[in-house]
Amino acid sequence: HFRVYQFLCCICLDVFTDPVSIPCGHNFCKNCITEYWDMNVTCQCPMCKETFYTIPQLRVNTLLSEMVAQFKCEVQQKVSSSSSEQQAAKPGEVPCDICTGTRLKALKSCLVCQESYCQTHLEPHLTKKGLKRHQLIDAVENLEGRMCKKHDKPLELFCNTNHTCDKYDGKKAELEKTEAEIQQMIQKRRQKIQEIKESVKMIKGAETKEKQAEGLIKDLEQEISELMKRRSEVDVTLDPDTANSKLILSDDRKQVHHGDVKKKLPDNPERISYCVNVLGKQSFSSGRFYFEVQVKSHCVLRMVSGLCG
């Protein structure tokens, strides 16, 4: 039996592909070590930091390649064995769309491929780079009915909970899309953090690699924090009920300019009459906030920012 960490490249944290040895004795994927040296000024080993004055000639480690191939074969045999133990789909359960003959019980459904998969046929979505980006949900029937015909996207992203498509204006659809993309990016980065933590535990004695992983984790956590801040952005509009009678608001209530002539407007108690001002429609009860405003001509701009308690 092989131990998994023996066949992991410390650069990509995945099973070796075309493993090569460098003069210090450490092994890496051929593409990984080549790209690593291309991105660094000095040519050194990522593990022991031994520096080479010229780029060493890379040769495939034949023995390690054979061991990796045998390891992958054993893993595939275990997967095949476990798939044979799976149960056939019972009435009321979702069957696998790929199985031929006896259709096994599906574990997940892909909203991109519009198909449901058993444990065996789900594997490519968990291992292949392109398929990892697909959105998986618990196995369900009628996947086609869960897609918005107008946007050709899952209903959960564009439509109401009653599965009817709304007529969104461009701004609202854009905000919803941004929110979904941020959520997806956060999930991917959290998953990557967990993968790094588990891989570091498996590689014994790799103190240098552990420090590199900790730095990467901090960078990813900082990126998550920045993404969370983006979610708090609010689209502020102007409140016509508070506008001074000499101000003229645009139809979208995003712009205002001085009209010089006092207009006849309803005498609202909220209207500002003692100075030429207008308030925003939205209000805040807590949290930090600020405004970004474009100013034209010779208008005087007053901005309010701070911390609400």
From TrEMBL:
<feature type="signal peptide">
    <location>
        <begin position="1"/>
        <end position="17"/>
    </location>
</feature>
<dbReference type="InterPro" id="IPR003879">
    <property type="entry name" value="Butyrophylin_SPRY"/>
</dbReference>
<protein>
    <recommendedName>
        <fullName>RING-type domain-containing protein</fullName>
    </recommendedName>
</protein>
<dbReference type="InterPro" id="IPR027370">
    <property type="entry name" value="Znf-RING_euk"/>
</dbReference>
<keyword id="KW-0479">Metal-binding</keyword>
<dbReference type="InterPro" id="IPR001870">
    <property type="entry name" value="B30.2/SPRY"/>
</dbReference>
<dbReference type="Pfam" id="PF13765">
    <property type="entry name" value="PRY"/>
</dbReference>
<keyword id="KW-0863">Zinc-finger</keyword>
<dbReference type="InterPro" id="IPR013083">
    <property type="entry name" value="Znf_RING/FYVE/PHD"/>
</dbReference>
<feature type="domain" description="B30.2/SPRY">
    <location>
        <begin position="216"/>
        <end position="309"/>
    </location>
</feature>
<dbReference type="Pfam" id="PF13445">
    <property type="entry name" value="zf-RING_UBOX"/>
</dbReference>
<dbReference type="InterPro" id="IPR013320">
    <property type="entry name" value="ConA-like_dom_sf"/>
</dbReference>
<dbReference type="GO" id="GO:0008270">
    <property type="term" value="F:zinc ion binding"/>
</dbReference>
<dbReference type="InterPro" id="IPR017907">
    <property type="entry name" value="Znf_RING_CS"/>
</dbReference>
<keyword id="KW-0862">Zinc</keyword>
<dbReference type="InterPro" id="IPR043136">
    <property type="entry name" value="B30.2/SPRY_sf"/>
</dbReference>
<dbReference type="GO" id="GO:0005737">
    <property type="term" value="C:cytoplasm"/>
</dbReference>
<dbReference type="InterPro" id="IPR001841">
    <property type="entry name" value="Znf_RING"/>
</dbReference>
<keyword id="KW-0175">Coiled coil</keyword>
<feature type="coiled-coil region">
    <location>
        <begin position="168"/>
        <end position="237"/>
    </location>
</feature>
<dbReference type="InterPro" id="IPR051051">
    <property type="entry name" value="E3_ubiq-ligase_TRIM/RNF"/>
</dbReference>
<feature type="domain" description="RING-type">
    <location>
        <begin position="9"/>
        <end position="49"/>
    </location>
</feature>
<keyword id="KW-0732">Signal</keyword>
<dbReference type="InterPro" id="IPR006574">
    <property type="entry name" value="PRY"/>
</dbReference>
